[in-house]
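Researcher: Here's a chain I'd like modeled. Treat it as a single chain, no partners, no ligands.
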Amino acid sequence: MEGSVEWQEVDPPAPFRHRMKLILTQHDAPHKKIEVEAAIQQQGQYCKDCLQHITSQSARFCFYTGLYYCHNCHKDQKAPLPAQIVYSWNICKYSVCNASYDYLQSMFNLPCLELSQLRPDLYQAVGILQIAMRLRIQLNMLYSHTQHCHELHNNQFLIPYRYYLTCIDSYSLCDMVQVIQSQPNLLSTSRDGDDDEESPQLEGAPCPQVTDQKQCELLARISSVRDIAMRHIRKDCKSCLTQCTKVCGICKDSKKTMYVFDVNNCVVCKSCNMAYHKDCLEGASCPSCTTAT
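Model: Modeled as a single isolated chain. Structure tokens:
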């Protein structure tokens, strides 16, 4: 018939497996049966891992992916979730599918959380993270002057924690779990009116004091990395000692040599690599760079 439109049935999209990745979204499981059925229907009524057909009676919810799985692909194993750790200061373990559990286990000790991008406010609120930042700035300065030393960087104890030296802001899930275990009540969640979004609130304006660094496994571990590296420089390796020892560019007093990683007393210009006593520089710009311009 002229002008008529022929309608064709379109097959639903073919089932596809998800690909595991770092997820920083908090998922709430539907509670009402009609909500569960609607969620499974929207998912295509198939397990997101093996792609077998599932129903509301045969499906389990994964709090990591926010998806449903059959009982074979979801053994109700539990793990702490990155989003809960970062945004809710919560290290409780949640029910996750087998693939999520394996993925989170494989990521547990890897530096996957950039706090300055995800929660920069934590550095102001968490005393342990402030101390960790100071230690890692020191380690990063040390690393920048000892990259040539294979003996130091092939140390078997240091290899798993190399990221403590190479960057100052990356943390593993294990690191953050240990921080929260040391300061568990720092953050709370509250609901504002009818808003369904949980909003983490920082309790107290001043930074909490950390009375015993040894109580935090993270700080103890970073301190051990620092001690090993410093012992290598000061006692075991003349080449590293030479690289890390500087004479102040202002006072030029060879009797008051500095270690570049002594961040309390030494300032190293990022542009020209000249080193100065903090007391000599008195907060001014680098004299070498200023003269050059």
